[in-house]
Amino acid sequence: MIPYDKRSGKIWYNGDLVDWSEVKLHVLSHGLHYASCVFEGERVYDGSIFKLEEHTSRLFYSAKRMGFEIPYTEAEINSASKKIIATQKVENGYVRPVAWRGSEMMAISAQHTKIHVAIATWEWGSYFDPKLKVEGIKLNISKWRRPAPDTIPWDTKASGLYMICTLSKHEAEKQGYTDSLMLDYEGNVAEATGANIFFKDKNGELHTPIPDSFLDGITRRTVIEIAKSKNIKVHERKINPNELSNFVGCFLTGTAAEVTPVSCIAQNQYKVCDMIINLNESYQNLVKKKKAA
Question: Global pTM?
Answer without folding.
Answer: 0.95
